[in-house]
Amino acid sequence: MATPVQLTFDCADPGTQARFWAGALGYVLEPPPGPFQTWDEALAAWGVPEELWNSRSAAVDPDGRGPRFFFQQVPEAKVAKNRVHVDIKAGGSGDDRRARIDAEVERLQGLGAAVLNPVDEWGSYCVVMQDPEGNEFCVD
User: Fold this and answer.
1) Percentage with pLDDT > 90 across the chain
2) Which one of 78, 91, 121, 125 counts the least CB within 10 Å of its CB?
3) Treating both helix axes as pointing N-terminal to C-terminal, what angle do 14-25 and 97-111 enclose, rounded to 10 degrees?
4) Are residues 68 and 91 in the same domain?
5) Would you list the DSSP string of 5-54?
6) pTM of the prediction?
7) 79 is a domain residue
8) Is 57 helix (H, G, I), strand (E, B) or coil?
9) 3-class DSSP assignment, residue 103
10) What is the pLDDT confidence band of residue 59, given thresholds at 50, 70 and 90?
């Protein structure tokens, strides 16, 4: 059964955000409903103006266990630090924890994320990052 939780992101470019988070989490872009083969086909059939085709997008867990990530276009830009953010658990435990975190940080940078700062305090290590639109998240 799919998780009855959805995380909604306000953003400028839903398609880019959905692709980033799908890649970051091992998710996939949500497929269009049948009988449509593509979202462009579905949106055209529903009469959605082409300039609105990138106004929404979603990334979903292919196994159906994790929450759906929904991205909706809004006119205003992000102006402050997120009050809630996603953490990507990459480190686990053991002597090579830091190396696993650093490898995941490098992978996420390849997808379009930026490093804000590493945090190494109280015996714990994580890296604070930003997605392509500046939303903070941590890799630990």
Assistant:
1) 79
2) 121
3) 150
4) no
5) -EEEEEES-HHHHHHHHHHHHT-EEPPPPTT-SSHHHHHHHTT--GGGTT
6) 0.89
7) no
8) strand
9) helix
10) very high
Domain boundary pick from 49, 73, 97: 73
Q: Which residues does 6 contact at the CB level (< 8 Å), separation at least 6?
A: 67, 68, 69, 70
Q: Which domain holds residue 29?
A: 6-73
CA dist 42 and 100 (Å) reads 41
55-69, 85-99, 107-121: segment of lowest average pLDDT? 85-99
Sign (positive/negative) of CA torsion 127, 109, 8, 1? negative
| Cβ-Cβ contacts under 8 Å for 79 (sequence gap 6 or more) | none
Residue 58: CATH number of its domain: 3.30.720
Same structural domain, 66 and 101: no
Can you read off the two tokens belonging to residue 102? Answer: 């650093």
Residue 69 structure tokens? 């990530």
Looking at residue 2, its pLDDT comes to 56
Task: Please say if the pLDDT value at position 3 is more than 70.
Answer: no
Q: What gap in Å lies between CA 120 and CA 25, rounded to an integer?
A: 24
Q: Match 């269009």 to its residue by tokens.
A: 32
61, 90: one domain: no
